[in-house]
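User: Could you write out the 3D structure of this protein bound to S-adenosylmethionine? I've included everything you need below.
Assistant: Certainly. Input first, then the structure.
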Amino acid sequence: MPTKADKPGWMMHGITSEPVEQYLYSLLPARDEVLAGMEAEAAKRDIPIVGPMVGRVLHQLALMQSAKTVFELGSAIGYSTIWWARAVGENGRVIYTDGDRKNADEAGGYFERAGVANRITIKVGDALELLSEQKQAFDIIFCDVDKEDYPRAFRLAVPRLRKGGLLVADNVLWSGKVAEKKPAEATTKAILEFNRLLYNSSELFTTILPIRDGIAIAVKK
Ligand SMILES: C[S@@+](CC[C@H](N)C(=O)[O-])C[C@H]1O[C@@H](n2cnc3c(N)ncnc32)[C@H](O)[C@@H]1O
């Protein structure tokens, strides 16, 4: 029987068939000891991190954009933050946000160990409120907060992206619940609205990658 270590909570979401998903994970190079330690900790404590397959997508998007500024809504222990921070380079800046001070303290320790603490600003509070205070335009805004807040995050994020910048969001296929005939959950309804907003916006061009739990990538035209 598979154990938590064989199949951590962040791994499977039933979008891709399990053998294909296992194959995709088998391709991934080993992570360094900081990220590997965070993955193990997340599996043990059921912390909902994006995991390495999505982490690589985030990192790759930042490299493709030569991104220097990233705003992250919902950072938990800072796993996805490290994937961004390593991509933006020495002169890049990533804003970490989370509502939980304990998460932020734990994340700070990981940032030091990963050697990227000087690229990351930690902000504790409501991520949407913190984004609304931002005056600069970002290269990338990444949304991974509570799903009911996704439509509001959309409205705050689009004006704060530079032309050519990316709005990226995790969990937009919500374990397949977006395809339910009569979705009942508020979270599913919010994600459906968010996806509609993305695809109907005249300011954005959007694609959803059905990787893990679905990642939306929208570029500002
Ligand atoms: C899915 S986890 C983030 C995981 C992280 N992006 C990663 O992959 O490593 C969501 C986090 O967002 C935080 N959160 C949810 N809604 C929030 C809000 N409105 N403001 C600030 N933090 C929020 C939760 O405390 C939780 O730690």
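Strands lie at 69-73, 93-98, 120-124, 138-143, 161-170, 204-209, 215-220.
User: Perfect, thank you.
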